[in-house]
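Help wanted!
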Amino acid sequence: MDLSAINPVLLIASLMVAATAVMIAAVGELVVERAGVLNLGVEGMMITGAICGFAVAVGTGSPTIGFVAAAAGGALLSLLFAGLTQFALANQVASGLALTLFGLGLSSLLGQGYVGIKPPATPRLDIPVLTDLPVVGRILFGHDLMVYFGVALVAAVWGFLTYTRAGLVLRAVGENHDAAHALGYKVRLIRVAAIAFGGACAGLGGAYISLIRVPQWTEGMTAGVGWIALALVVFASWKPWRVLLGAYLFGGVTVLQLNLQAAGLAIPVEYLSMSPYLITILVLVIMSADRSRAPASLGRSFHASQ
Amino acid sequence: MQKRTFLASAAMTLALATGAFAASHAEKVKVGFVYVGPVGDGGWTYEHDQGRLAVEEEFGDAVETVFVENVPEGPDAERVMTEMALNGADLIFSTSFGYMDPTINVAQKFPDVKFEHATGYKRADNVSTYSARFYEGRAVQGTIAGHMTESNVVGYIGSYPIPEVIRGINSAYIHAKKVNPDVEFKIVWAFTWFDPAKEADAARTLIEQGADVILQHTDSTAPQAAAEAAGNVITFGQASDMAEFAPKPRVSSIIDNWAPYYIARVQAVMDGNWESMDTWDGIGPGMVGIGEITDAVPAEVKEEALALKDALADGSYHAFTGPLKKQDGSDWLAEGETADDGTLAGMNFYVEGLDGEIPQ
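Answered by r_m:
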């Protein structure tokens, strides 16, 4: 075993990359859940975003337009869920699960002609002096823009929910939709907007995998990241900064176990492979001591007549 | 997976329709193919489908082929093969290790239909098995890897710890060591055949730990993409040529070429002399191909690799030739002795010099 082969700076830099997709998807779902809607279709929206972003990036040659298309694709798919749950008053759990299955099928259909193609490269941020700084340079300044976008998004969502009037209204809708309705807020409209935002974030997260993390298209390539994003929201007890913490922890353990294997650590590989999940569960148990609870109207359908 | 069931059903409907067509052209030989992945995976399944197309090209109107892709290894495989047999298939190729038991089960129900199972070891009167000696290709890769590495660290992404994969690691290591005594292998087990995100992470990890050559026994091109991003790292195509990453990082490849075998077996069915047998062919008969060695490799290294390839092809050299010891230091092969196929087929140990343990 040679643990000195593991470079902590590179480890931190690569855990930030490994965490970004799940973080962006989770912070979008957090907004949806704070508005009182439980959308279990994150995986389906992510994979749809992955292929939409990939196809458009290949078609236009611009990763930026690809990311915009991924957000649009995810949001569009989420509007299907919004229509079902907010207007047809369908069960949110069942609709969300259906959305995942639908998204997986739709993405493999859309992706038929894109197997084996390379997308245009997304440039890394490279600031002449800063990136060359020892240690912090590589960690803070050597990433692609989406890594910073993810962190900025968490900050923006936190600021929005904590300090703005719109954020307060959104939370009110999530806590007690009848009261919010009585005060004259348009509950359905606010929820549809939140669902679309969540869909856009999931789409971006998916495109991060297909355009940057792997740069290629493969059926089912999100491989369960959407489910981890859902778990992360609960793990974070519906608080934005804890989403960031949880994503880095999960990404960190994932990358660390590969590093330990490559360094020849004498722990059976199977234990290393399951370690990210085990540690996430463990931290979840510890953090549940925090008495923050889920939004009171989470998962309940709203109709103005009731 | 709902979508797979849907795809399978759609394909079966197609098979039914074409089956009815075949009934009116009874002289045609009908050949079915069962695939584990999509035909566009660029690796394993892609090459099997190329074999199917070669059969169509060779026999033209005398043959009719059907295929079903994305068939999960389990009860679905049995159902797909049963329907193929019911629809009049004369010969069915099932092309993944996990189809072994389903193939045997279905074959018992249809004694008049011939079955061919890739990479398995269970045979019956109407079930043949076939596989390729990929380890011969690994020997060529190892030689190039040993010469090309400057950090003396070669990264290897393994899928599952089964004899097929372990054989490849040993063969690559033995030949890298032969040309570069200082070489060291770092091995990461991915526990998947095909998960691009995980393969990319594994490749990046190995590169960060100093590997400048990445070998893989997983099917996607994600490690190639990771190597390209890292810059000064070389890789090899796996199962398929992966030429879109040439001339660098992909400097050569191991290619599965099933076409001659498929053509020969279909011919045997037509001639009525098909027999159950076990085929394990390598570079010589052309079942394993070495993809073009690019100019990123120095001329003398390329020459040496090609010489090794020729020696493996004409049988004058065996990839596992003694003296060789096992990882624990015990003797395995004496000077000049070569490994027998039985040992190779069940290989579950590393050779001396490799670090780490094989997951059990």
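OP: Thanks! One thing I noticed: Chain A touches chain B at residues 5-7, 10-11, 14, 18, 101, 104-105, 108, 112, 115-116, 118, 121, 209, 213-216, 218-219, 221-223, 225, 254-255, 258-259, 261-264, 266, 268-270, 273 (CB under 8 Å).
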